[in-house]
Amino acid sequence: MVFDEDPPRHTDLDKRLQAAQRMESIGVLASGLAHDFNNALTVMLGQAHILQATCDDTDARRLESIITSGRRAAALAWQLLDIAHSNRDQREPLLLVPLLKESIKLLSVSFAPRIQFNIVTGEGQLTAEISPTEFHQIAFNLCINAAQAMESGEVEVELQKVSQGGSDWALLTVADTGGGIPDDQLKTVFQPFYTTKQDGTGLGLTMVRTIAQSCGGRIELQSETGKGTTARVWLPAVKSRMEFSDPKYSRLRGQNQTIVFLDDDPAVREALGAILSINGYVPEGFETPEQLEEYLEKSSDSVGVLMLDVVLPQISGTALCAQLSTQYPDIPIILMSACRKPPAVEAALHFGQANAFVSKPFDVPELLHTLHSALMKVQKSSL
Prior knowledge:
Layout: H1 7-52, H2 57-77, H3 79-84, E1 92-95, H4 96-111, E2 115-121, E3 127-130, H5 132-148, E4 153-164, E5 167-175, H6 183-186, H7 204-214, E6 218-224, E7 228-236, E8 258-262, H8 266-278, E9 282-286, H9 289-299, E10 303-309, H10 317-327, E11 333-337, H11 343-350, E12 356-359, H12 364-382
Helix pairs in contact: 1-2, 1-8, 4-5, 5-7
């Protein structure tokens, strides 16, 4: 028997295997970094929110800039992880125009005065079901590629609603007048780690395609050597929902309900306690499960909501959640973590052991909304 090996195919399979192994290593590293990084940002953003509630308008605007940048920093910690693990659990109908304008504002500072970004948006609200992190990653990667393709000039950015195939789409178009992409490279630009840049990672367009496809959309590239490149990302348009509009979140303020929480990081406990306090709640924070259980044995009747960190030194938050949900079935439990929502959290939510999950660093409107919803469910069930 003669075995005729196919060297090109064998080499291609080896490369794919190596790429998969690298992606797995990146995922493990990014997960650990994100946990520690987001815990630190939880403290920073929490303290900024507290100051914002007590300062004058000028300082409040400055703090809003700090908070916005902090949220972007938290998003960066997940960038590599999002390539391998889609961010679907945090998706919701979001207005895209404000997100795009925020991205362009940040990019303009980085590339001025060499590159100018011209942004055009259609009339009316344009909404897609996507997480803020994912949309910013799409906009950042496409706009950075366009800016780096030119010595100087203008990048045209357009976001509009279009109808195609009987469906409505949010179409993001980014066009440059750079050197263009050769035809033979157009087939490979979406492969992980493929790059022609000296300091590039080869992950940008891979990420854009992964996000777009997981949202039910797609990306198209049109390029002509010597004339430039146009990238188009199609995302399914959806109906908008009401957004938080009151900067003080008055409708979501607590009524002196006791919120008990467990987190082994003292700085996180301090920041979370302060956020709860200035928003009308009575915070009770604990470092260890033993301290928490001792408190609950004496004062469970006064607890409005129980919040548990998922990653703890002695026991997992989900295991403790399963135990406490049986002992105290009338207390709603919210799990929180600086990591992505793991399968154990999904299981706790599915089986009714936990009522909700919130990510760190906290988005204060989201946190208040989650607490409000948990308390409302308890009130309805007691009627």
